[in-house]
Specification:
326 residues, alpha/beta, Rossmann fold, binds (2R)-2,3-dihydroxypropanoic acid
């Protein structure tokens, strides 16, 4: 409990279901105001609620732009997001105003890499489709060519982006006896040598890879890099996996490529928009596996992400070094 009876800082949390471990850290030291529902706070409500607030604990479903910062006013010192991605935050605008930004790198790398491998194998070996057949009478007998898909062993895997998560994916992929790991990234990454990943141009990666995995942050340079031209360059047998942001993909071009057999299959943890509307053609395609943005959703990871987000806010408000400042 708070002995003094007054707490110096006001913090707004944008959802009622943020993992408690982090929320409790804040409750000890701040006046905490929480959006009452386990769903994203409506924009109008968000704009009203942040007036006079010192810190905002948000997620990737909350847009932090000029309008929101204006609505908060000069009291706002820190915006901390429970995500490593920060494409929902106008970073230059925050910097200009001296508002600190907290995010959650490192702590979700393993969880997201695990999910990326799970999605890759689910897509290549057709797990959702196979389970559906098993449950609905399609499993008539063992059959030599039924439900077959390409193996990872001996394949070439291309990873787009080569940051923390991409590297963790590469290390895991290697354990499946792949023949080659290629990556495309703006700069050469020193870790690549030890992993045994080879830097190539984007087009070369598309042409040579059996599996193309997108692990690139969404920035202007990566917006819709997976467009029609990119899918055209991929092998007809290629499998495309995306666990970064839906915005890296021209989704209509992907739908066409999956329909026409221009690529074999896709596994997506991220889409445009999110949630993906139920009438999206993607849901009708057997060769597309879709997950509802659960890359970092391991129990331990989500708790640690919440704590890190809270600690980013507490550090910024007490003018000490933030554990993870952007
Ligand atoms: C992130 O951290 O950016 C993920 O998309 C959610 O964990």
């Amino acid at each position: 409990s708070n002995m003094s009876g007054t707490k110096a800082f006001n913090v707004y949390i944008t959802r009622s279901d943020m993992p408690e471990s982090g929320v409790n850290l804040l409750r000890n030291k701040c006046n905490v105001k929480v959006w009452q529902e386990p769903s994203p706070v409506p924009r109008e409500e968000f704009l009203k609620a942040v007036y006079g607030i010192n810190g905002i604990f948000c997620s990737l479903t909350d847009t932090i732009d000029k309008e929101l910062l204006d609505a908060a006013g000069p009291s706002l010192k820190v915006v901390a997001t429970i995500s490593v991605g920060h494409d929902h935050i106008d970073v230059p605008e925050c910097k200009k105003r001296g508002i600190k930004i907290g995010y959650t790198p490192n702590v979700l790398t393993d969880a997201t890499a695990e999910l990326t491998l799970a999605l890759l194998l689910s897509t290549s070996r057709r797990l959702p489709e196979a389970q559906h057949e098993a449950k609905t009478g399609g499993w008539v007998s063992w059959a030599p060519t039924w439900m077959t898909g390409p193996g990872l062993a001996g394949s070439t895997v291309g990873i787009v982006g080569f940051g923390r998560i991409a590297q963790a994916v590469a290390r895991r992929v290697k354990a499946f006896n792949t023949s080659q790991i290629l990556y495309f990234n703006r700069s050469k990454r020193p870790e690549a040598d030890e992993i045994g990943a080879i830097k190539v141009e984007f087009d070369e990666l598309l042409v040579k890879s059996d599996f193309v995995i997108c692990c690139a942050a969404l920035v202007p340079a990566t917006k819709e890099i997976f467009n029609k031209a990119a899918f055209d360059k991929m092998k007809n047998t290629a499998i495309f996996i995306n666990t970064s942001r839906g915005g890296t993909v021209d989704q209509n071009a992907l739908i066409e490529a999956l329909k026409t057999g221009n690529i074999r299959a896709a596994g997506l943890d991220v889409t445009t928009p999110e949630p993906l509307p139920l009438d999206s053609p993607l849901f009708k395609l057997k060769n597309c596996v879709i997950l509802p943005h659960i890359g970092s959703a391991s129990i331990e990871t989500r708790n640690i992400m919440s704590e890190l987000t809270a600690n980013n806010i507490l550090a910024a408000l007490s003018n000490s070094e933030m554990p993870a400042e952007l």
